[in-house]
């Protein structure tokens, strides 16, 4: 039995008529907005200091308001809107610096190996940011923060591996996984009988096990659960 998290596209459409939920979603994606803006302007930007980030925030809200499923992935659409509004911003300011949607760290339209490598690194960094945002958001639905996860993560490698094995068993057992996802509680008795791991050890690792299960279900590539959700 497959379990799917609510897509970002559905979240955008669902919350955009609610000012509080819209503001919260935008807040979640401030790292993404900063990453896109910094990539476009070619320098580090800081919220509260650089006007480009205010432009990015407004553009992200604009993207939310005008988005529909026919536009494809929301973040790709939002990235385009942010880029366009930054171009408008620089034009209105009459600044010498110009931005191009087709100009990502290239010179005179030439793409060399170093610029391609930088493009790859930028995309990977952006993917890491997005995974952490999505993972943090999902954990919050379970009453867990990344900071709390870091605190409860086992220090011993062998214990982490035991909990990882438990998570694999849960993901591979449709009945146990269904119970967990629907109740947001570990079915300790069933897991104990399946894994032969003592219930006290399972209870101590409850948060960590759930976090690993979520990471597996979400098919995260960059989040390293061994370090409490770090990258």
Brief summary of the model shown:
The chain has 12 helices and no strands.
Jot down its keywords.
231 residues, 67% helix, 2 domains, mainly alpha
Number of helices in the DSSP assignment = 12
Quaternary form: single chain
Count every beta strand, where a strand is a DSSP E run of 2 or more residues.
Answer: 0
Largest sheet: none
Helical amount: 55-70%
The overall pLDDT average reads 81
The computed structural class is mainly alpha
**Run of helices and strands:** HHHHHHHHHHHH
In the predicted model, the low-confidence regions spanning at least 5 consecutive residues are 101-112
Report how far apart the termini are: 29 Å
Tertiary shape: elongated
The fraction of residues assigned to DSSP E strands is: under 5%
Compute the number of structural domains. 2
C-alpha Rg (nearest Å):
21 Å
Give a written overview of the molecule.
- The chain is an all-alpha fold.
- It has two domains: 1-101, RNA polymerase sigma factor, region 2, helix turn helix motif (Rna Polymerase Sigma Factor, Chain: A, Orthogonal Bundle); 114-231, no CATH class.
- The protein is 67% helix and 0% strand.
- Helix 3 packs across helix 4 (51-66) and helix 3 packs across helix 5.
- The protein is elongated.
Fold topology:
Elements: H1 8-15, H2 19-28, H3 30-41, H4 51-66, H5 74-93, H6 113-141, H7 146-152, H8 157-172, H9 174-183, H10 188-195, H11 199-204, H12 206-217
Helix pairs in contact: 3-4, 3-5, 3-6, 4-5, 8-12
